[in-house]
Amino acid sequence: MRKKEATILLVDDDDDILFSAKISLKKYFTQIITTNNPKTIISQLANQIDVVLLDMNYRIGFEDGKEGLYWLKQIKEISPETTVILMTAFGSVNLAVDAIKQGATDFILKPWNTEKLYSIINAGVELSRSKRKNIQLETIQEHQNKEFHKQTEHIIGNSPAMNDALELMQKVAPTDATILVLGENGTGKYVFAKEIHLQSNRKHHPFIHVDLGSLNENLFESELFGYAKGAFTDALKDTQGRFELAKGGTIFLDEIGNLPLHLQSKLLTVIQNRKVTRVGEATERLIDVRIICATNANIHQMVEEQTFRQDLLYRINTIELNLPALRERQKDVILLANHFLKQLTHKYRKTIVEISNEAAKALQAYHWPGNIRELEHIIERAVIITDNSRIEVEDLHFSTKKFETNTVKTLNLEDTEKVLIKNALDKHQGNISHAAKALGLTRAALYRRLEKYNL
Q1: pLDDT-based confidence at 213, cuts 50/70/90?
Q2: C-alpha span between 154 and 175 (Å, rounded)
Q3: Which of 79, 296, 309, 339 is most buried per CB count within 10 Å?
Q4: What's the angle, vertex CA 342, arms to CA 339 and CA 344, rounded to 5?
């Protein structure tokens, strides 16, 4: 039998007891430490003790177990993840109850049965490891939460369209209302969802982001709802899904417009009942989460086309928050550009103090098909390549793709088809299903043409 990696501390004033216990346990565990002086317990805890087997009495004539309870309290204060098992030859039910109430895991009488002693110690090791793992996970989560709050991206803008969106956000953020954030790619849907969470009563709990657009259909249920050990080949342990991980906090379901109809019904059931059932289980688990969804698709048109369930839309858009495209908020372009300039000069350790007037005019004149994300990318590229102390027009590299593909310049059928495919993809922000439907093609047929034209 292979020894389990574990450190056990035996504490008793009787050296014979210590010797006997060590002989019994050393064939099962890698490290057994013994001491006949309880005052050394505190220093021994530095060794990351898994289990302490602690005698209750140390003074001759005193058999009330008070010393054992005293040292139990000391151990739990210093190392709460360490399992403590108390032992005495003068056991009583009342003493055992007091010990359990104060944090002991179990209680054993001397003389013990070796198999029973091993069983209790082994269970104690597993419990200690579980507690230690939970403490580590909580520490990691706390660190991630701090980083999450530190990395909050500011919502910048004072254009009328942006002010309307901010006003609505501030009204709904403190509530538990389900919110649907609509807007083109790059308009800041994730940033708004995160800000709603941070302004809510759930801000000290998790914010779980799920990109439904990139989620494999076969993994949808196991990722969102979790799975039981043995539910499928690689299910080696019970695993929580994203809804359970978001307990007490917010789950952000991004790109919900890309969700196929047969999966929409599964999501609807969870949102309606506020319960999830892990794959491979029959048990329903209550979920306490706030739901925020987002999409760049015209979801109301999708309902009319019967590619998105109307009942699901009603469940997710208690409040509908529409984010304006950057071309609709020209006043904010330079505000955002200067914000990114400040961030990126710090990131790349450069001393660029401003954007020139000519460059600013060029930024405001551009149509911004990629919205804020494109603006950040253009400023970042400019910061990297310029050798000057300010951004000039020649440092800005705008996309000309949109202008090149909007019109047919030839009567060649293949060229015309290529242009139409590009236009359909532009119109539907790259959504293959919607573009294929607009073109009167199947998804497979569109994919073949994309490959043919190297698009």
Answers
A1: confident
A2: 21
A3: 296
A4: 105
* pLDDT tens for each residue of 44-55: 888 789 999 988
HEC letters along the chain: CCCEEEEEEEECCCHHHHHHHHHHHCCCEEEEEEECCHHHHHHHHHHCCCEEEEECCCCCCCCCCHHHHHHHHHHHHHCCCCEEEEEECCCCHHHHHHHHHCCCCEEEECCCCHHHHHHHHHHHHHHHHHHHHHHHHHHHHHHHHHHHHHCCCCCCCCCHHHHHHHHHHHHHCCCCCCEEEECCCCCCHHHHHHHHHHCCCCCCCCEEEEEHHHCCHHHHHHHHHEECCCCCCCCCCCEECHHHHCCCCEEEEECHHHCCHHHHHHHHHHHHHCEEECECCCCEEECCCEEEEEECCCHHHHHHCCCCCHHHHHHHCCEEEECCCHHHCHHHHHHHHHHHHHHHHHHCCCCCCEECHHHHHHHHHCCCCCHHHHHHHHHHHHHHHCCCCEECHHHCCCCCHHHHHCCCCCCCHHHHHHHHHHHHHHHCCCCHHHHHHHHCCCHHHHHHHHHHCCC
pLDDT score of 400 more than 80: no
Residue type for position 243? F
What mean pLDDT comes out for the span 222-241? 88
Q: What is the pLDDT of residue 133?
A: 74
Summarised one tens digit per residue, pLDDT across range 134-186 is 776 666 556 555 555 554 456 898 899 999 999 999 999 999 999 999 999 99
335: confidence class by pLDDT, cuts 50, 70, 90:
very high
